[in-house]
Write a structure and sequence with these properties.
The chain is about 80% helix and about 0% strand. The chain has about 170 residues and is an all-alpha fold. The longest helix has about 35 residues. This is Integral membrane protein.
């Protein structure tokens, strides 16, 4: 079963919605990491608020957006003539999507999730805690790489580089 033109357009709308709620909040998290910090004369509550806000963005926007992209991409590959491997750019988008979800699940997510409990318990002293600083540094290093990779996936979706592989019928 293949989708008709109208079905494909609606699938594209839904897919783009999920792209927006994966990439946009990803950019937001990167900006929050570099632009937000507690005032030095404040309490640990401000640091905890920043960490909790970042976790909220991840849990309620980035994760649903990523899985929405995965599911709608799967539907695109199954229900249209685009396929999984017919175009090199689609294959690369699959690698980026699955790789991004796995990297977020096993690395970025745990690093981010460790920040809020530490800042709640330690307050501003978390800024001197080696485990907290490691998790924050790993997110500050790798989250921009993840976001850049996602933006690259958006670019190749628009540009559609690399020719289609000939069909073997």
């Amino acid at each position: 079963m293949k989708l008709g033109a109208t079905g494909q357009k609606w699938l594209k709308v839904v897919h783009l919605f999920f792209v927006c709620i994966w990439v946009g909040p990803g950019v937001t998290l990167v900006a929050m990491q570099f632009a937000m910090s507690p005032s030095p004369d404040g309490t640990g509550g401000m640091l905890h608020g920043i960490d909790t806000s970042m976790k909220f963005v991840d849990d309620w926007l980035i994760i649903p957006g990523a899985f929405g992209c995965l599911i709608t991409g799967l539907l695109y590959s199954l229900l249209t003539n685009w396929g999984f491997f017919r175009h090199g750019w689609i294959t690369l988008k699959w690698i980026i999507t699955v790789g991004g979800i796995l990297f977020g699940t096993f690395f970025l997510g745990p690093w981010l999730n460790a920040l809020a409990p530490a800042s709640l318990e330690l307050g501003l002293d978390a800024l001197h805690n080696p485990a907290y600083l490691h998790n924050k540094a790993m997110n500050s290093l790798w989250a921009p790489v993840q976001v850049a990779t996602l933006i690259f996936a958006v670019a190749i979706s628009v540009l559609k580089p690399w020719r289609a592989k000939p069909r073997k019928d």
